[in-house]
Amino acid sequence: MPFGISAGAAFVFLVILAALILFATEPVPVDITALGVLVALLLVEPLSATAADLGLLAEPLVVLSDPAEGLSVTDNGLSGFASSATLTVLAMFILSEGVQRTGVVQILGSKIASFTRDSESRQLGAIIGVVSPISGFINNTAAVAILLPMVTDLAHEGKTSPSKLLLPLSYASMFGGMLTLIGTSTNILASELSGRLIGRTFTMFEFTQLGVVVSIVGTIYLLTVGRWLTPERIPVAEDLTEEFELGEYLTEVVVREDSPMVGETVRGALADTEFDVDLVQLIRGDRTFTEPLDPKTIRAGDVFAVRTDRDTLVALSDAEGLDLLPEVDVDEAELEQANERENLVEVVIAPGSSLVGESLASANFRQRYDATVLALRRGQELFRQRMDDVRLRVGDTLLIQGPPDSIERLNANRDFIVAQEIDRPDYRRSKIPVAIAIVGAVVGAAAVGVLPIVVAALTGALLMVLTGCLKSTEVYDAVQWDVIFLLAGVIPLGIALENTGGADLIADLVVGSATFLPPLGVLALMYLVTALLTNIISNNASVVLMIPVAVEAARQLGVDTFSFILAVTFAASTAFMTPVGYQTNLFVYGPGGYRFSDYLRVGTPLQLIFAAVTTLGIYAFWGL
């Protein structure tokens, strides 16, 4: 092979290139890409060995097997599923869910609301001050999912644009996740890789001092420069219909006596229509009905609130015998008059949702959830008509109107994050001390070395069920299986990169390109390369690819390998520059109405500041 690259290394680089493209463009979910990588690595050795036996290849492509360790291709290839990192992350999802089910975070949110009132500075300070420490002890993705409704409500009640608060929420959860080993799945994975490569894993509070430093710096930035740079994409509005600019798309019509719709059910009347229209509310006399409207029989004199555009409304009125009611504003108050409880909410499509890639029509959304989608927001793009065929993505925000029981079902469904606080009767508030004690015991046992983190976390997960903080039927729903399969799929890729010498080759390039840089400069370069990579692909994939390179680069320079591992770990968990670099950025993309460029504008300075602070902090605390 040219340039001294072995056939095995060349194959691994091709797999990495394909994986990077698929991770960045996401034609399929990232966990499916990771499984594809795993299958490719498992197949290449036996197939190439057969080809070599037939004379088609000079020698087999040895990618995963390690004769020195007595490990076969299957052993190494499937090691991701048996990895302590994978099992620890799985257990941490269960622990986070146990805490969430008690409602303790929601109680904390209500305390914040009473303190901050309408001060944006107080709101920002309180949000950052709460999400950062919480993210150190429960998964930071879960922390944002739990707090997002509280922050959205805080913005509406305090007359602040949600855009000013949601991006800081995401960023603060990221640097808060660097306070402890268990703050993010990336830390846990990096610890296992460090143990395998240099024989040193992370302790529970291994890098807490540096995590505190970057958290303080990040907080100062978000309260000053970041606050100025963060745009106000969504105007301050108390009314959700105003926020989604639905003034021209919502109106009321009355059914005339000569209407062909009289005597038909709502579903039957609209079954074959080509009009882009939704009947969202029925007013009959002094009674108001919301979903499910499909079985209602239409009568003359019925008044319907409809979602459609003006041109369609004119054509619909002529064809179906409807009269427009003049001088009627269909706003949030009008749509909620049927119920004492909230029935107009924003709903975010969550990572791993079964609706990703589906449309409202293909998912049969209205019949399936007894709710009507009035508008769809993707970043700053608003869809208020012809929404049925739009393919849904993670982070899409739906404005939904439906009865309270439908909203409660959506709130309990892991496919969605309801972006307003919904009072859930199933919170187990009596279990708050128990859940907190279990998490504290897990942290304490791992911190003092009584138990390995994987054993402590699995024990804690079991205790969550045995003590009633979680029901046994809720355990599997608590786990983000896409993250688990992603970890299991990419861990063998790192092994292949090491076994084929690919990590050595990349390290040669890094060290060679840094000829005129001191070791501290190479450390900063390693941080920046990882940060750029993690803003495009998964943070876990970045760690798997870059830690072997960092270790080899440090060895070539004759400096401390652990310091280089820490630089990669911190960089991989701080993806500030794109909405796709980290799940929490996607969570807030729709509710904040952001543009892609907003992440570059606010996140790039923070990324560069963190590059300097982290590398200097590593040098100060651990040396080189």
From TrEMBL:
Residues 238-322, 330-416 form the RCK C-terminal domain. The keyword Secreted does not apply. GO terms for cellular component: plasma membrane. The chain crosses the membrane at residues 6-25, 32-58, 78-95, 124-151, 171-190, 434-466, 478-497, 509-530, 561-582, 602-622. Keywords: Membrane, Repeat, Transmembrane, Transmembrane helix, Transport. InterPro entries: Cit_transptr-like_dom (IPR004680), DASS-Related_Transporters (IPR051679), RCK_C (IPR006037), RCK_C_sf (IPR036721). Its main location: membrane. It comes from the Archaea. It is a multi-pass membrane protein. One of its GO terms (molecular function) is monoatomic cation transmembrane transporter activity. The keyword Kinase does not apply. One of its GO terms (biological process) is potassium ion transport. It is found in: Membrane. PANTHER family: BASIC AMINO ACID ANTIPORTER YFCC-RELATED. This is Sodium/sulfate symporter family transporter.
